[in-house]
């Protein structure tokens, strides 16, 4: 089994991790393992690709100015 050493970890972060582990019913080590495994299992998404996809989906649609809509709502 591999062991990790994290020197100089912020004490506040450690306390938050301990509290999170307690909420989940885990030991600190189990919580850290869960966080790390989840972090490496998630697909890395290119933010620019997401923006371009959204722009493509919205292309050709008419969009209202949200500032105008908010002013109109306040005046009601």
Strand content: under 5%
Shape: elongated
Outline the biggest β-sheet: none
Query: Would you tell me the structural class of the helices and strands?
Result: mainly alpha
CA gyration radius, whole angstroms: 22 Å
Number of strands: 0
Number of helices: 4
Uncertain segments: none
- SSE pattern: HHHH
Distance between the termini: 65 Å
Could you report the average pLDDT, rounded to the nearest whole number? 91
Helix content: 55-70%
Outline:
This protein is mainly α and 76 residues long. It has four helices and no strands.
Structural account:
The protein has 4 helices and no strands. The protein has 76 residues and is mostly helical. It has a domain at 11-58. Helix 1 packs across helix 2 (28-41).
Give short descriptive properties of this protein:
single chain, mainly alpha, 4 helices, 66% helix
What is the fold's blueprint, element by element?
Layout: H1 11-24, H2 28-41, H3 47-58, H4 66-75
Helix pairs in contact: 1-2
